[in-house]
Specification:
Blueprint lengths: L5 H11 L9 E6 L3 E8 L5 E7 L1 E2 L3 E2 L2 E6 L5 E7 L6 E8 L5 E7 L8 E7 L5 E7 L5 E8 L5 E7 L8 E7 L5 E7 L5 E8 L5 E7 L7 E6 L5 E7 L4 E9 L2 E8 L7 E6 L5 E7 L2 E7 L5 E6 L8 E6 L5 E7 L5 E6 L5 E5 L3 E5 L5 E4 L8 E2 L10 E8 L3 E9 L4 E10 L2 E8 L6 E9 L2 E9 L2
Antiparallel strand pairs: 1-30, 2-3, 3-6, 4-5, 6-7, 8-9, 9-10, 10-11, 12-13, 13-14, 14-15, 16-17, 17-18, 18-19, 20-21, 21-22, 22-23, 24-25, 25-26, 26-27, 28-29, 29-30, 31-36, 32-33, 33-36, 34-35, 34-37, 37-38
Length: 461
């Protein structure tokens, strides 16, 4: 900041340390008819796809599985529904496949063998059906989450009442890229289990979260398997009458979101574990914590339903690496979030009850001094340096640019991406908290168009 006085500069830098973190502003909200959006993803062409179900009345309530694609402004590109209108069909999870199409998992009463069956549906890039597969027996079987495996097959988790020793059991299904079964595993005992989310882990195994299906049982159920689905560990975490809802693998363990069952409990939170599944810390929220997404700067974005709030209502909250709240966005009404992600431009989008998409602006520690004119690209030395644990990085942009500001360790390995977005001309300051890092020398690099500059900084505990 070469065009401000030294006193002003010191005032500005110090003020950043005391500015409260603010929730991002709402950019727009679009609704797409009655129903529930249960999962939102960003596509490779920077659009949004939501899967869920419609809600309509025809000789009683009926639900059709719905998939919509919108552009980056939320305007509908296409809408598809799947299933027989005389039966109920639900979509719970969607992923984009390598050919630009989509794979969906849900539950169907339109097809299959029993009351409800797990549905795996593959579409092309326009949402037109390529094939469908169902899995189940004579009773009720539900598919909750699908992931694309590292060989382009699919892993599905859900619950089965058709197979296993209890009334309800966790069901893991592994298929090839055509949806044909490679193997299935059922996990459960007399207590009963529900499976809600699965990921493929870095060792090619699988991690699963769910909960106890039987009344009187309590806690989050968390399991890790090898690549063929054989159990390597099971952990249960006391969390009231709640379930594990979503799961991430981090660089030193797992992060689990949890919450109640919409009837008996409305609270939730996060559980951080090591790779053995042992608890490192937990926190709690006053809402059912349905989804979790890791942001560019290593924070955790969650959303969910507050059933105690008048007219329901919901939350979107950002937590730091230690589970401390950075900001929280609370709202009433019936547009209640169930799935939220950070997008490639640094903003946030969410969907949920009311089949809506809301987009919120970026919420980082990046501040712009709009009244300062700059004539060239410039990356300043961080201040203070050495630092513990916070420091400020400043840079100047003479024109609108695609900006990347990243931190690397001394081996050149990326530690965190602080900024990754298109910024207008101006002078910027980023307040960075390195509380989760060890002492040492770090490099920070600014890339803006053709301009690239790297500087060194020292974190000293």
């Amino acid at each position: 900041m070469r065009y401000v006085t030294f006193i002003t500069l010191i005032f500005v830098l110090l003020s950043y340390q005391f500015l409260p973190a603010q929730a991002p502003d709402t950019l727009w909200t679009k609704t797409y008819g009655s129903g529930i959006g249960r999962c939102i993803i960003e596509t490779t062409d920077n659009c949004y796809v939501v899967v869920g179900n419609t809600y309509w009345w025809h000789n009683g309530s009926r639900h059709d599985l719905r998939l919509i694609k919108t552009d980056s402004d939320g305007d509908t590109i296409w809408t598809k529904t799947y299933g027989d209108t005389n039966y109920n069909d639900f979509g719970y999870s969607v992923r984009q496949t390598s050919d630009g199409g989509y794979v969906i998992v849900g539950t169907t009463s339109s097809y299959g063998a029993g009351q409800e069956d797990v549905l795996l549906l593959r579409t092309d890039e326009f949402g037109d059906t390529l094939w469908t597969k169902t899995f189940g027996g004579d009773s009720s079987d539900v598919g909750k989450c699908v992931q694309i495996t590292n060989d382009d097959g699919f892993i599905i988790v859900g619950s089965t009442k058709s197979f296993g020793v209890a009334d309800e059991n966790v069901w893991l299904i592994r298929t090839d890229l055509n949806g044909d079964t490679l193997w299935t595993k059922v996990y459960g005992d007399s207590a009963g289990r529900q499976g809600n989310y699965v990921i493929q882990t870095s060792d090619s195994g699988y991690a699963i979260v769910g909960g106890f299906g039987a009344w009187g049982q309590a806690g989050v159920w968390f399991a890790k398997t090898n690549p063929t689905g054989d159990l390597q560990m099971i952990r249960t975490h006391p969390a009231g009458l709640s379930f594990g809802r979503c799961l991430l693998e981090t660089n030193n363990g797992y992060m689990i979101s949890w919450g109640g069952d919409f009837v008996r409990e409305s609270w939730g939170g996060l559980i951080r574990t090591d790779f053995s599944g042992d608890t490192l810390w937990t926190n709690s929220t006053n809402y059912i914590c349905l989804s979790i997404d890791q942001t560019f700067n290593g924070h955790y974005l969650t959303c969910g339903l507050d059933v105690h709030y008048e007219e329901q209502g919901g939350y979107l909250t950002l937590f730091d690496e230690n589970g401390n709240e950075i900001w929280s966005w609370h709202f009433g009404g019936w547009l209640v979030p169930r799935s939220a992600i950070q997008t490639s431009d640094g903003s946030f989008v969410m969907t949920g009850n009311g089949f809506f998409i809301t987009k919120l602006g970026t919420a980082t520690n990046l501040k712009q001094s709009e009244d300062i004119i700059t004539e060239s690209f410039f990356l300043s030395q961080n201040f203070p340096n050495p630092f513990n644990p916070t420091t400020t990085i400043e840079f100047d942009l003479p024109k609108t640019s695609e900006v990347s500001l990243k931190v690397f360790n001394i081996l050149g390995e990326e530690v965190v991406a602080l900024v990754s977005e298109r910024l207008p001309a101006g002078s910027y300051s980023y307040a960075w908290d390195a509380s989760n890092l060890a002492s040492g020398v770090y490099l920070y690099r600014l890339q803006a168009g053709d301009y690239v500059e790297t500087r060194k900084m020292v974190l000293m505990r």
